[in-house]
Amino acid sequence: MTDLVVATPVFLDLTFVGLESLPALGEERFAAELLRSPGGGAITAVSAARLGLRAAVAAPLGDDVPGDIVRDMLAAEGVQWIASRPAPRTPTTVVMPFGGDRAMVTIDPGARALKSDVAAAAPRAVAASLDQLYAVPDGTPTYVTCGDDDLRAYQRRPPAALDGARVLVVNERESLGLSGKDTVADAAAMLAERVETVVVTLAGEGAISVSNGATITVPAERVEHPADTTGAGDLLTAAYIWADLNGAEPEDRLHWAVLYAGLAVTTPTGVGGAVDEATLLGEGATRGLTPPPSAGG
Questions:
Q1: Dist. CA 231–CA 174, nearest whole Å
Q2: Cβ atoms within 10 A of the Cβ of 152, count?
Q3: Per DSSP, what are the bridge partners of residue 107?
Q4: Do the beta carbons of residue 254 and residue 239 sit within 8 Å?
Q5: Which residues pair with 16 in a beta bridge?
Q6: Cβ(189)–Cβ(171) under 8 Å?
Q7: What's the gap between Cα 271 and its chain centre?
Q8: Can you give the pTM of this predicted structure?
Q9: Contact yes or no for 258/284 (Cβ under 8 A)
Q10: Fewest CB atoms within 10 A around its CB: which of 160, 163, 202, 276?
Q11: pLDDT tens digit string along 223-254?
């Protein structure tokens, strides 16, 4: 059995490190380095594997050089690639971190995971974006995320397939857009009528979760100079899943998830700062967090 199958599309991320500023039209800017790393759903899968979960990705990749690079990177992390069909070409994102945020440009041919591939792995849980919910086997706990394309497609009308999901993880903009509400509190409350738990990430303010009418608030880790916030939501999602599958209580899950994401953004690329389970548990111990009952075994 696989602990977690990620159905969310996987990208090759090309990250400019040390960018002096974002160029305007007609301008040229310089960076210190260009790094390659697995992106998109691979950030969740790699982070989950580093936290000790048996992880796989079902997203198609191309039979091309970028696809070979991503497959090799996943294999090196112990993440299984289980897609039974290739994509026309491997999705690729150029990432430009600057000033505590980032801009991105993506090429995505639109190939998506197959439900049969996900089911064949017999997952304990599935991580999927809103447009991937069809790929989740019936009765499997689902951790749902929302990308920019999902937000445009489901503005003010989340899909019916979202109903009953284990967790929905969204940022502030996504929560407002999906719900049509004016405040995060109202948005989270409305979305929580559809799923067991809603987690809304609030960047430098931390995150909140809403479940059964109860709201939990966890402040962010203090990070003076974040190097790259790419994939912070994917990292938070991976740690939340890890804590949940290891039996943590709701408030503890959110604390561990926020801590994990906060530790990671000090290092370039989405997976660059994703620490392993022992490191996370050690960092949590210094903050007085309660370890998930089954973690660290």
A1: 15
A2: 9
A3: 92
A4: no
A5: 34
A6: no
A7: 10
A8: 0.95
A9: no
A10: 160
A11: 888 888 889 999 999 999 999 999 999 999 99
